[in-house]
Design brief:
The protein has a seven-stranded mixed sheet, sandwiched between helices. Strands 26-30-27-29-28-31 form a six-stranded mixed barrel. It folds into four domains: 82 residues, N-terminal domain of TfIIb (Single Sheet), CATH 2.20.25.90; 230 residues, Rossmann fold, CATH 3.40.50.740; 200 residues, Dimethylsulfoxide Reductase, domain 2, CATH 3.40.228; 112 residues, Barwin-like endoglucanases, CATH 2.40.40.20. Helix 5 runs parallel beside helix 21 and helix 9 crosses helix 13. It is built from 25 helices and 31 strands. The protein is α/β, with parallel strands linked by helices and 752 residues long. The two termini are 19 Å apart. It binds ligand MGD (2 copies) and iron/sulfur cluster (SF4). Iron/sulfur cluster (SF4) binds next to helix 2 and helix 8.
């Protein structure tokens, strides 16, 4: 769809107006027509707001915020407008197959035929090329029971570790960051910390648009306590900055220098917490070699504020001030998201945020924590905790660790040696392997890779080449174009299952209404498919999702992820419980690793904090130098292109695009460009502007705004008619393999 300049300007105004009411937060309200209310979790972001679904007859009619969950009854606009998504016209309600290959039309068939069609192709692939010829590509939006089950079917049933998913595009750097610093994934803090923090250090997160209800809580805290300081570090002046005391504008991709610069100032001015780091911290270089505190200080000598100014463009005195506010506040809370994770040095950037907390002791007490914001509603609980990635096994275990494999083989009742010692393909490698024919059949669940993978021109070849079976609810998802089989999935409150959000909170969505048409719950689809594909039925002995939860809860017992006390019955009553929670009478944990709070720390432990994630009980401060992004701007491609979200759309807009209020706010993609750059290039608001990268070129209408710093342009990625990922490279972080969606170089010019 193309818009005239006039229409574009009109719609931009609508977007601003709607966002002004939609974010921060709304208490969802509407006509009280519901006959009953069923408890659940919002379908969208990793904030994990509790909802109540109002049901009348056999229909869902209304969504409200759950007053008993952390969101205290509030929902943002898209959360409160979930009902029209359920009843969207393009819901897929029958199984579909393409009999004659990728170019043939999708035809309605019976469940049996669709399942057999997919299963036979998986059997053939395994027979001809072995278990690694098949793969599962999942999602941080899948229910926990679905991800746990798929992980078991593929790793223990098919015997391949080719299990990955969109959390690789999202949280992988945060996972590797926590693992390297603390020895175990998942944060130690919770949203309760928002109510005690006196400094919010928000870096690479547009909290106001991507986690609106959390932003609302920060804004309230600041309003009620004038001593609270908010620092926002972002190369864009987003809506989040409007409550900031200090906005640190810096060149994209230079965070490592900024963070080291802040650490330099903290140590130079002796604002560190010597007692804390002497007791709990060890220092290491990139090769894992131990270093002394003195060596760390010497390493930081390269990051004087003046030097940091040269690298980042941040005035030296701003670096000084930010370091001082962070160190001297009574409780500093860091929040970060994709501006940090989606980077070729995303893991290092995570480590350097942890460093600030570990040298100052801003950790393990109320309000003080490095709290990585999770994007999807169940990336934490469903994928990270269940270990549904190519290198992981459940509850913090690793594929490469023989002992961990043996533990899982014993628990799953399969012979020793069943789980392969070699890691599976991470996402980018998986789609490359599909294009080469090494992976011949893939099962895609609850994600839309044909829209969201980086370097789309390259990676859609994988979808064109491999046999693709997928679950989906909506016909307009781009990946459906490449599907050989589409299994119609029950949507959100048409089925039941657990989500685990940013703060280690597990919460149950209960089934409120029947699945639409012939669609089915995905645990049922996975079990039927696996049986037909030849997986031993003993591996899948479940009647329903509750049985799977029971197994997973039991598996967590005694592990550092212990949530054995979170039974299905408790989840039905409570609006979420935070693990660790080892017994049924345990209320859940706010401050992980803290004696007297975390049940996994013995009450008589000699230290107030026990970092039990690592065998030596210590945490690591890393000496990580600044490194530039993969593709910085240069003379030929002089701008940096960055991509991200808008408040009213969820990723590929297959859901939010169905809601008129949301669609009207953001009907199509655009490019934000700084007024100085626009003036130089003679670009006016609404003009068609070409972005040309080394991969492709595309045209977008311009929004001339000082949101972006000069030299930077921003495009949202929700619009299927303007697949901005065609412009991107697919360079990944060396450790986490997360792509650098935040930075590529581009030419910018007005369309002739
Ligand atoms: P993004 O828009 O991807 O959102 O949530 P966020 O990460 O908050 O990017 C965050 C910020 O990174 C942007 O403001 C951008 O300017 C900044 N940035 C770009 N380059 C750099 C850099 O070099 N350094 C730093 N420090 N910052 C940089 C993402 C989160 O949102 C995720 S992961 C998901 S899966 C969810 N998706 C989602 C959605 O699709 N729509 C809405 N409305 N909310 C969502 N919530 C979740
Ligand atoms: P979604 O739109 O969330 O995007 O990328 P995707 O996961 O690919 O896809 C979810 C799909 O599941 C949709 O097609 C939806 O219709 C379908 N669906 C919805 N509900 C259900 C359900 O109940 N069951 C089933 N089976 N299907 C359902 C997200 C990904 O994008 C992420 S997480 C990140 S962090 C990356 N961010 C990012 C970025 O910042 N910039 C750029 N340029 N690209 C990015 N790509 C990544
Ligand atoms: Fe849903 Fe996130 Fe909005 Fe909460 S903040 S209502 S979880 S989209």
């Amino acid at each position: 769809m193309t818009f005239s300049r006039r229409e574009f300007l009109k719609n931009s105004a609508a977007a601003v107006a709607l966002s002004a009411i939609g974010g921060p937060a709304l208490a969802a309200s509407g006509p009280q027509t519901a006959e009953k209310w069923v408890k659940g979790v919002c379908r969208y972001c990793g904030t994990g707001c509790g909802v109540l679904v109002g049901v009348k007859g056999d229909k869902a009619v209304e969504v409200r915020g759950d007053p008993n969950n952390h969101n205290a009854g509030l929902l943002c606009l898209k959360g409160s407008l979930l009902i029209p998504v359920i009843y969207a016209e393009d819901r897929i309600t029958e199984p579909l197959i393409r009999r004659g290959g990728k170019k043939s039309p999708l035809e309605k068939v019976t469940w049996d035929e669709a399942l057999e069609f997919a299963a036979s192709r998986f059997r053939e692939a395994i027979k001809s090329k072995g278990p690694d010829a098949v793969a599962y590509y999942g999602s941080g939006q899948a229910l926990t029971e679905e991800s746990y089950l798929a992980n078991k079917i593929w790793k223990a049933g098919f015997r391949t570790n080719n299990v990955d998913g969109n959390p690789r595009l999202c949280m992988a750097s945060a996972v590797a960051g926590y693992l390297t610093t603390f020895g175990k994934d998942e944060p130690m803090g919770t949203y309760n910390d928002f109510d005690s923090a006196t400094c919010f250090f928000i870096i690479g997160s547009n909290t106001s648009e991507a986690h609106p209800i959390l932003f609302e809580r920060i804004a309230k805290r600041k309003q009620s306590s004038p001593e609270v300081k908010v620092i926002v570090a972002d190369p864009r002046r987003t809506n989040t900055s409007r409550i900031a005391d200090m906005h640190i504008f810096f060149k994209p991709g230079t965070d490592l220098a900024l963070l080291n610069g802040m650490a330099h100032v903290i140590l130079r001015d002796e604002m560190d917490n010597n007692r804390f780091h002497q007791r709990y911290v060890i220092f290491m270089d990139n090769e894992g070699k131990p270093k002394t505190f003195e060596e760390y200080k010497a390493f930081l000598a390269d990051y004087t504020p003046a030097k940091v100014q040269e690298i980042t463009g941040v005035p030296a005195d701003t670096v000084e001030k930010a370091a001082k506010i962070f160190a001297e506040s009574s409780a500093s809370l860091s929040l970060w998201c994709m501006g940090i994770n989606q980077r070729t040095r995303g893991v290092w950037a995570n480590n350097l945020i942890h460093n600030l907390h570990l040298i100052t002791g801003h950790i393990g007490k109320k309000g003080a924590s490095p709290l990585s914001l999770t994007g999807q509603p169940n990336a934490c609980g469903g994928v990270r905790d269940t270990g549904s990635l190519a290198h992981l096994l459940p509850a913090g275990r690793m594929v490469a660790n023989e002992q961990h494999r043996k533990e899982m083989e014993k628990f799953w009742g399969v012979p020793e040696g069943t789980i392969q010692p070699k890691m599976g393909h991470h996402t980018v490698a998986l789609f490359e392997a599909m294009a080469k024919g090494d992976v011949q059949a893939v099962f895609i669940h609850c994600t839309n890779p044909a829209h969201t993978l980086p370097h789309l021109n390259k990676h859609t070849k994988g979808l064109e080449t491999a046999f693709v079976a997928m679950t989906e609810c909506f016909m307009d998802a781009e990946t459906v174009k490449y599907a050989d089989v589409v299994f119609p999935a029950a949507f959100w409150c048409e089925t039941e299952g657990v989500y685990g959000c940013t703060e280690r909170r597990y919460a149950l969505t209960e089934q409120a209404i029947k699945p639409m048409g012939n669609s089915r719950p995905v645990v049922q689809i996975l079990m039927d498919f696996a049986q037909k594909a030849g997986v031993d039925p003993k591996l899948i002995p479940y009647k329903n999702a509750a049985d799977i939860w029971e197994e997973w809860r039991t598996l967590s017992k005694g592990s550092p992820y212990d949530f054995y006390g979170i039974t299905r019955e408790r989840l039905k009553k409570a609006s979420g419980i935070k693990w660790p929670c080892p017994t049924e009478d345990h209320p859940g944990t706010n401050l992980r690793y803290v004696r007297g709070e975390d049940p996994l720390v013995p009450k008589d432990h000699p230290n107030p904090i026990s970092f039990y994630g690592r065998p030596d009980g210590k945490v690591v401060v890393y000496l990580r130098p600044h490194q530039p992004p993969f593709e910085p701007a240069d003379a030929d491609y002089p701008f940096v292109l960055t991509t991200g979200r808008v408040i009213d759309h969820w990723h590929t807009a297959t859901m939010t695009g169905k809601v008129p209020e949301l669609k009207k706010a953001y009907p199509s993609a655009y490019v934000e460009i700084n007024p100085q750059d626009a003036a130089k290039l003679n670009i006016r608001n609404g003009d068609q502007v070409v972005l040309e990268t080394k991969r492709d070129k595309m045209t977008f209408p311009a929004r001339v705004t000082d949101t972006c710093m000069p030299g930077l342009v921003f495009c949202p990625f929700f619009d299927k008619n303007k697949l901005v990922n065609r412009l991107f490279h697919d360079a990944t972080d060396a450790a986490s393999r997360e792509p650098e969606y935040k930075i590529c170089s581009t030419k910018v010019y007005k369309q002739a």
